[in-house]
Amino acid sequence: MRIRTVDAFTARAYAGNPAAVVLLDGEAPRSFPPDASLQAVAAEMNLAETAFAHPLAEDRGADWALRWFTPTTEVDMCGHATLATAHLLAEDGVLPEGGRVRFRTRSGVLSASREPDSTLTLDFPTATLTEVPVPDGAGEAFGAPVVAAWDTGGLGMLVLEIADEATLRGLTPDLAAVTALPSPAVLLTAAATPPAREAAQGAPYDFVSRMFAPAQGIPEDPVTGSAHTALAPLWSQRLGRGELTGFQISRRTGYVRTTLRGARTLLGGSAVTVLDATLHAPL
C-alpha cells in the first residue's frame, strides 16, 4: 500500500509540518481498515499526524472520507494533514487547478481548493474563543508570564498570549508541567515584532505561535493549521484586518495565511512531497 510524506505549510522540503498520507483510492465503495491498524501505522510513522482517506461513491455532500491519527490517538481536526492530503490529490490529478475537494471528517465537511498559483486553501470552522483566567501553573510551565488565556470550545486547545515574539521564541517549556495544564493542547501566541520577516523564507507575517501537545504524543507541533482557526479571529480583531499571515516559530517553521469569514476561516499554504514509499505490512 502506498504511503507518502508531505511537508505542509511550507514551500521548501524539510520545513513546515510533515504528515504521512495513505490514499485508499482503489475501486469504490471503500471503507477504512480497522482502527487498530490505522493507529499502528500512525505510531510506526511517528509524525504529528498520519492521514487516511478514501473516495465516497454515494455521498452528495462530500467527495472523500478523511481521518487523522497522532502516534497515540485519533484527533477530531487537523489542518496540516488535510493540506497534505489535498496536495497529493492535486499531484495525482484528482484536484485540478481551480477545483475543490470536500472531505467528510469527524468535524463535519471540510474543503480544500487549489488556487491558480498551485497553493491550497482550506475551509474550516472558526473556533469560538472565550477568555478565561490564566490557569495555575501556566507561567511556570513555560517559564514566562502569561498575559491572557482563551478556551477554544470544540477545537480543544488552550490559547495563551505571551508578551512578545522574542519571549515566545526563547521559551523552553517543562513538558511534564504542560501536560498537567487543563487542556491536552496548549497554543502560545504573540504579536509579530516589526519588521516581521523570517530570514530563511523571507515572507512577512503578522503574528507568531507555538503549539505543545505532549499529552497527545506531540511535544511541540511544527505547524498547526487548525490552531489558526482560533488565531485568525483573535488577531484579526486586534489588528483590524481580515487577512493575515501567521508564522509558527517551531524548529522547522511554517506559514499559514488566514482569511476570517465569520463562522468560517480560510487557511492557505503550500506543500512539498518528500517521500513516496510502500507499506509492506497489510492493514
From TrEMBL:
Q: Which residues form the active site?
A: E49
**SUPFAM superfamilies, A to Z:** Diaminopimelate epimerase-like (SSF54506)
Q: Which GO terms describe its cellular component?
A: cytoplasm
Q: Which Gene3D superfamilies match?
A: Diaminopimelate Epimerase, Chain A, domain 1
Domain of life per record: Bacteria
**What keywords is this UniProt entry annotated with?**
Isomerase
Family named by the database record: Belongs to the PhzF family.
The cross-references to NCBIfam families, in alphabetical order and at most eight, read: PhzF_family
Please list the GO terms describing molecular function: isomerase activity
Quote the protein name from its UniProt record.
PhzF family phenazine biosynthesis protein
A Pfam short name? PhzC-PhzF
